Amino acid sequence: MANAVVEGNLIVSGVLSGNRNFEGRINPHVKANYLASPPLVVAYALAGTTDIDLTSEPIGETASGDQVMLSDIWPSHEEVTSVVESCVLPEMFRKQYDNVWQKNEKWNAIDVSGGELYDWNDQSTYIQEPPFLVGLKREVDPITPITGARCMAVLGDSTTTDHISPAGAIAADSPAGLFLQDAGVEPRDFNSYGSRRGNDRVMTRGTFANIRIRNQLAPGTEGGITRYLPTGETMPIYDAAMKYKEDGTPLVVLAGAEYGTGSSRDWAAKGTFLLGVRAVIAASYERIHRSNLVMMGVLPLEFESGATWQSLGLTGEEVFDIADLGDDLQPRQQLKVVAKPASGDPIEFTTTVRIDTPVELDYYRNGGILQTVLRKLLDG
Fold first, then answer.
1. Are residues 263 and 161 in contact, defined by beta-carbon separation less than 8 angstroms?
2. What is the mean pLDDT of residues 299-315?
3. 353-356-358-363 Cα dihedral, nearest 10 degrees
4. CA 23 to chain centre
5. What is the dihedral of CA 155, 245, 247, 325, to 10 degrees?
6. What is the pLDDT averaged over residues 346-375?
7. Structural domains of the chain in order of their starting residue, each with its CATH number
8. Rg for the chain (alpha carbons), in Å?
9. Which pTM was predicted?
10. How confident is the model at residue 168, as a pLDDT?
11. Which helix (H) or strand (E) holds 190?
12. How crowded is residue 75: how many other Cβ atoms within 10 Å of its Cβ?
């Protein structure tokens, strides 16, 4: 089936009763995912297609050839209640949770060092010491301009947090997959990004690595590909970000409306920060992701009403300067951005700083919420 989907360039669908319908979340080959109640999931499974109007078309036929409508088999509220009351019993929960501390022999057999602090294991592929506070100074550095920045990704509307930081399968040929294989992990044991969210080395490599994300800096590609602009080479976003980090080049992301829509996935902001992105410039933001960017020390900027990167003529190949960014930054102030193409006149445009409150400004000034809290603890 997977070969047929790939060879035929088919858009196949899934119907599920879970709480996420991101592209590629159910299966890398399933592009169209629909959330539904459990009875509707069963109904679409019986129909064998989502290309059906269940209110007017038959879901199937009886053995004698009579049409069966969904309304004929849909359970009533009374039927559902009766089944729940007869099948979901208190003893089930007691059996499942009694003796919970002793029943998992494998978990209880894990060696632990004891003590109040976790003994980090450099060889672990599941959990590593988070790097966010490494090298933290007690004093707060001043806010400085962003100059000479290059664009890492140019994205359209409704880029979700799952596009930015996928929770699903890890592809064997992705930066995260190659990293795990180098660490001796076989592809069958990769598990998922969601399961390895305690390891920044995996999650940073997985940032912008959703198999369906389309970066306009590398048109015609999917799956977290970009161009390293100094040479024009096409490569995974993680690899390009590390080259920019070696160069000392700050990064920006251009995006459309509703940037960061979907679940409030913290790694969508954490991974963005760890890749070296200093600012995101978008037409609008999903509320929680905007806040998460601020709390990771990434500057969210918003185009003026009605403006987009397309309407301004931006391609992402420009060099970006935000020269007016400084220690006098205020919530929701206007900031000028200058984008300098390789040839032609610079493109100047005004953005709104989407740091919305003084508290958020304090987070940003400290480099993030973690740094803010720790400094306040140090100050008593």
1. yes
2. 97
3. -70
4. 12
5. 70
6. 96
7. 2-96 (3.30.499.10), 146-165+207-378 (3.20.19.10)
8. 25
9. 0.81
10. 86
11. none
12. 11
Q: Show Cβ contacts of residue 216 under 8 Å, excluding neighbours closer than 6 positions.
A: 154, 155, 156, 315, 316
At 47, is the secondary structure helix, strand, or coil?
A: helix
- pLDDT category of residue 49 using cuts at 50, 70 and 90: very high
Q: Where are the alpha helices (DSSP H) in 109-253?
A: 161-164, 175-182, 200-206, 237-247
Q: Nearest to residue 46, comparing CAs of 35, 62, 32?
A: 62
CB 370 within 8 A of CB 133: yes
Q: Which among 257, 131, 253, 271 has a CA at the least distance from the CA of 210?
A: 271
Beta-carbon count within 10 A of 4 CB = 10
pLDDT at residue 31 in the model? 82
Q: Are 153 and 253 in contact (CB under 8 A)?
A: yes
Cα separations (Å) of 234 from 8, 215, 227?
Answer: 26, 11, 4
- Locate tokens 């003893």: which residue? 91
Task: With H, G, I as helix, E, B as strand and everything else as coil, classify residue 252.
Answer: strand
Alpha-carbon distances, residue 100 vs 90, 94, 108 (angstroms): 16, 10, 11
Query: What are the residues facing 146 on neighbouring strands?
Result: 322
Tokens 């500057």, residue?
Answer: 299
Structure-block tokens of residue 270? 């954490």
The pairs formed by 29-37 with CB atoms below 8 angstroms and a separation of 24 or more are 29/1, 29/2, 29/5, 31/212
Q: Which two tokens stand for residue 302?
A: 């918003």
The one-letter amino acid at 79 = E
* Close Cβ partners of 17 (under 8 Å, ≥ 6 residues apart): 35, 36, 37, 38, 40, 41
Pairing of strands 277-282, 299-303: parallel
DSSP letter string, 267-319: HHHHHHHHTTEEEEEES-B-HHHHHHHHHTT-EEEEEPTT--TTTTT--S-SE
Residues 6+ apart with CB under 8 A from 64: none
Cα gap 54→69, rounded to integer Å: 7
β partners of residue 169: 192
DSSP 65: S
